[in-house]
């Protein structure tokens, strides 16, 4: 069964007489197929020669071109070593011929045309290389390698680069290759001999492919993309290449490796090498500095190749000129470099596939991606017609009328139509891509002076000495940003205050190129930075040390709805699963957590969420981190000491973590409970008795969460709420925990259980712990004794911790800790298993310890205290003081608490503390006013207290 070449369009002959002459060589071909032969042979001297030489084969090939092409590749695989030179050249003629005719006829799309050319190139490389390797092994020139190693080319891999790597070879392309060998296959005493032999094999492979003979050539071969080609041999070890890229690799080399693909030799070793280069090619953070690098490359290419002139069709370079193929490739690859480190879905080799992926992820507008794809396909067709004329590796439109007419003939259109179409497409591509790249000009000094009017120039004068501005490149980008930055500061409520805050951010920034490039490409981030700098000193300081978290604003659904703890855990687990090294996983967890914590802070700062919701989100984030990191720690520990004996361990979140209310700077109160059952020892290579096993496992978990690493720390961890406090073991057995809680625990320890929550570990043990917690909380409890104990605790806390001032909403009578203590007491007295303050206060009402009115007073007081404390922790990790409270921070405090003015908020706080303390004092001694609420006529809390 045949599948004849489908004719969708036809070229016309530039020279009809030559067309008829070519047609006559295939007398059995008629109709549109004959007209196709006449058009191709009558316009392209190269195609006429191929048709004449391969006429007998071509006549049959037109009946089923795809089968004919597949047969050519299969025949190549059967070639004997001494037949390769002639056999591959004949195959090249046939592949070039059937590809050209299918392309001219519109029978095959661009991907099929370039795909066949690429597949043949890869096969030719593989056959030529393995023939050389086999010869070396037969002569004993590759120590330690035998005939069975030919299949892997004795560890030598050929990386296809550029268009070959992306399966996009053009019609008359050379092939860019990097040849590397796996040095681990050879001993130290074998290395030099093997290296010399593999270099010889690489040279011979390249010569077999590129030497011109009477039969033609296979492919022009370029080996200059390897590391430092002026001083390195044509084949180097993978270790040497990896060292080069890690220490000296440049942005253009990163871009080149987007398309890199093992195509011949040891494919497995090639893939392994590309995996080792992944951190070099795909940076962890959004890499907007690549835009400037790409722009600089474009300018250098234009200067070196003379392609920087205006768009004029005659003589225009369709690849390197303005609006050409390279512009679309740079546009695509640069965006892939920017975001591909964070999103593996963008790590695609093909230009068309890359544009589609970028559009799907929101990095390119879909209509722009579609238009650039259309222009890219059209440009490639024109490029192929240019190369079909004489099989020349050129991308320039002919400069003469006759030359352009030949291209128009192969395109099947008039010359004027071709000129118009090419000019329009070049201009449109230039318009779509040029603005993406960083501008080269620095604003005039007058623009900066105008923007800086009214600001303290002495502050700006010290900026050039900051680490972020040490490099000329950073200074150049910052100079372009400066007028816009200063203008935005000048329009804030307190410009001098904002300038000082920005100065603090800039001074703490260790490097500037990436951050400034990020701002230049995304000006909306400048507004966010100015907002943060003018409001939250703590967040601005944090940003200066962790500027990569800006990535989250533009690299994902930053302003989408909160996903919830389960979704967060799944996302982090997937992120960790992508890494193999334990420390790399812990650093990945730190980066991920910082981005989400930054998101919560920004949402709170901008009024997108209230303080209570922020507290819940901070807690869910911490829960997700603990739940995802704990299994990592267990696996790492188990590798040495065996799997956890018995049922394993569970992690209990206490305090604010258990109650799902954390702030930006909260530490984590944790208890680890384990159940060894009947086990006495672990079963690993270095077994441990159960008690030291779980003690050391707990220490490993605390280290994983709290140790400072390259990406900082996750959380501070406090284990003092465990049984017997800091004097007891860091991990508690299930039997000891239950016995202690039933027989020895103090009242405060039962109070603490009202807020406890299992956050990680063995699910069955976790369910048992929760059931036991409910049993303990459910009582019975000695009411009088418990209230007396709580009263004594309040006195001791008051003696030990004095409030730092009005803005310290946490410590002191009638403030957060005091209110939480009352709520926990209410939960314990009522046997309520719920963990929040409001439910605990309702429990106090249910047992008639508080009146409903008193509980409402305390609940509203707590809401106000929580809002103030949460906002204050975001403003400054050290707390806030009136003398350093800026206007932006004051406005944020008012917005977070629903207060109209800062003075009004001060009054609400002072009256709220006083009234809540009076309610609690009365409850402790059983004294109430007639209506059950001390000072019931005072409505200072109720006004606006729902905020």
TrEMBL record:
Mention one GO biological process in which this protein takes part, according to its record.
regulation of glutamine family amino acid metabolic process
Q: Which GO terms describe its molecular function?
A: [glutamate-ammonia-ligase] adenylyltransferase activity; ATP binding
User: What positions does the domain Glutamate-ammonia ligase adenylyltransferase repeated occupy?
Assistant: 42-275, 528-769
Q: InterPro entries given for it?
A: GlnE, GlnE_rpt_dom, NT_sf, PII_UdlTrfase/GS_AdlTrfase
A Pfam match is: GlnE
Q: Could you tell me the keywords of this UniProt record?
A: ATP-binding, Magnesium, Multifunctional enzyme, Nucleotide-binding, Nucleotidyltransferase, Transferase
Annotated Gene Ontology cellular component terms: cytosol
Q: What is this protein called?
A: Glutamate-ammonia-ligase adenylyltransferase
Gene from which the chain derives: glnE
């Amino acid at each position: 069964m045949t599948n004849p070449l489908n004719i969708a369009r036809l070229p016309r002959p530039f020279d009809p007489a030559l067309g008829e002459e070519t047609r006559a060589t295939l007398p059995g071909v008629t109709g549109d197929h004959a007209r196709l032969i006449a058009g191709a042979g009558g316009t392209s001297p190269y195609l006429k020669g191929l048709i004449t030489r391969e006429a007998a084969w071509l006549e049959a090939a037109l009946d089923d071109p795809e089968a004919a092409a597949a047969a050519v590749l299969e025949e190549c695989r059967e070639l004997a070593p001494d037949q390769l030179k002639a056999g591959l050249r004949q195959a090249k003629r046939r592949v070039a011929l059937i590809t050209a005719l299918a392309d001219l006829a519109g029978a095959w799309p661009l991907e099929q045309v370039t795909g066949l050319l690429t597949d043949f190139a890869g096969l030719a490389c593989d056959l030529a290389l393995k023939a050389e390797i086999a010869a070396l092994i037969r002569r004993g020139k590759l120590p330690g390698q035998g005939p069975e190693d030919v299949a892997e080319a004795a560890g030598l891999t050929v990386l296809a680069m550029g268009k070959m790597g992306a399966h996009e070879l053009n019609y008359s392309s050379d092939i860019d290759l990097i040849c590397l060998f796996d040095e681990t296959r050879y001993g130290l005493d074998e290395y030099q001999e093997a290296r010399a032999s593999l270099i010889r094999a690489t040279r011979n492979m390249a010569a077999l492919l590129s030497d011109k003979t009477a039969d033609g050539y296979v492919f022009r071969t370029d080996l200059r993309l390897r590391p430092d080609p002026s001083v390195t041999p044509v084949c180097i070890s993978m270790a040497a290449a990896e060292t080069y890229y890690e220490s000296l690799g440049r942005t253009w080399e990163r871009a080149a490796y987007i398309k890199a693909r093992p195509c011949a030799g040891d494919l497995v070793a090639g893939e392994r090498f590309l995996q080792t280069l992944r951190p070099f090619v795909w940076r962890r953070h959004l890499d907007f500095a690549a835009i400037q690098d790409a722009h600089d490359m474009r300018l250098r290419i234009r200067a070196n190749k003379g392609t920087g002139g205006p768009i004029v069709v005659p003589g225009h370079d369709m690849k390197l000129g303005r609006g050409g193929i390279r512009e679309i490739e740079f546009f695509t690859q640069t965006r892939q470099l920017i975001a591909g480190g964070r999103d593996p879905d963008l790590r695609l080799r093909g230009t068309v596939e890359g544009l589609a992926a970028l559009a799907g992820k929101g990095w390119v507008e879909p209509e722009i991606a579609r238009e650039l794809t259309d222009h890219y396909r059209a440009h490639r067709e024109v490029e192929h017609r240019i190369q079909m004329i004489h099989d020349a590796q050129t991308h320039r439109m002919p400069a003469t009328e006759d030359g352009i007419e030949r291209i128009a003939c192969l395109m099947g259109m008039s010359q004027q139509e071709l000129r118009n179409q090419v000019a329009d497409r070049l201009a449109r591509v230039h318009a779509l891509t040029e603005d993406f790249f960083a501008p080269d000009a620095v604003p005039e000094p007058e623009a900066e002076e105008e923007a800086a009017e009214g600001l303290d120039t002495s502050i700006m004068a010290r900026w050039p000495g900051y680490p972020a501005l040490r490099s000329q490149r950073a200074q150049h980008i910052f100079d372009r940003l400066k007028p816009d930055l200063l203008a935005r500061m000048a329009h804030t409520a307190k410009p001098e205050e904002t300038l000082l805050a920005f100065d603090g951010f800039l001074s703490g920034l260790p490097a500037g190129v990436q951050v400034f490039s990020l701002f230049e490409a995304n000006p909306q981030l400048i507004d966010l930075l100015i907002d943060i700098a003018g409001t939250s000193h703590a967040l601005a300081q944090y940003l200066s040390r962790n500027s990569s978290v800006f990535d989250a604003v533009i690299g994902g659904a930053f302003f989408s709805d909160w996903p919830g703890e389960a979704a967060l855990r799944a996302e982090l687990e997937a992120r960790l699963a992508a890494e193999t090294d334990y420390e790399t996983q812990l650093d990945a967890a730190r980066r991920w957590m910082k981005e989400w914590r930054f998101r919560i802070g920004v949402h709170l700062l901008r009024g997108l969420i209230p303080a209570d919701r922020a507290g819940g989100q901070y807690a869910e984030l911490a829960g997700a981190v603990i739940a995802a990191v704990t299994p990592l720690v267990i696996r790492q520990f188990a590798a040495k000491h065996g799997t956890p004996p018995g049922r394993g361990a569970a992690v209990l979140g206490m305090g604010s973590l258990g109650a799902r209310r954390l702030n930006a700077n909260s530490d984590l109160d944790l208890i680890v409970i384990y159940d060894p059952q009947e086990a006495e020892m672990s079963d690993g290579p270095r077994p441990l008795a159960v008690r030291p096993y779980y003690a050391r496992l707990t220490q490993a978990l605390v280290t994983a969460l709290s140790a400072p690493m390259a990406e900082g720390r996750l959380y501070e961890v406090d284990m003092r709420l465990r049984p017997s406090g800091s004097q007891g073991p860091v991990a508690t057995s299930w039997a000891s925990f239950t016995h202690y809680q039933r027989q020895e625990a103090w009242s405060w320890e039962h109070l603490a259980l009202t807020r406890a929550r299992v956050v990680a570990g063995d699910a069955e043990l976790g369910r048992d712990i929760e059931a036991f917690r409910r049993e303990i909380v459910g009582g019975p409890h000695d009411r009088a004794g418990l209230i007396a104990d709580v009263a004594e605790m309040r006195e001791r806390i008051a003696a030990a911790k004095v409030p730092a001032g009005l803005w310290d909403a946490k410590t002191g009578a009638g403030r957060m800790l005091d209110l939480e203590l009352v709520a926990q007491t209410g939960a314990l007295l009522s046997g309520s298993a719920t963990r929040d303050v409001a439910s605990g206060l309702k429990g106090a009402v249910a047992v008639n310890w508080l009146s409903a009115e008193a509980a409402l007073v305390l609940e509203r007081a707590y809401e106000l205290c929580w809002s103030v404390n949460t906002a204050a922790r975001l403003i400054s990790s050290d707390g806030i003081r009136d003398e350093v409270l800026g206007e932006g921070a004051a406005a944020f405090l008012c917005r977070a608490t629903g207060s109209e003015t800062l003075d009004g908020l001060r009054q609400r706080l002072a009256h709220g503390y006083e009234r809540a303390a009076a309610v609690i004092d009365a409850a402790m001694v059983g004294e109430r006013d007639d209506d059950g609420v001390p000072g019931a006529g005072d409505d200072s809390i109720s006004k606006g207290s729902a905020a």
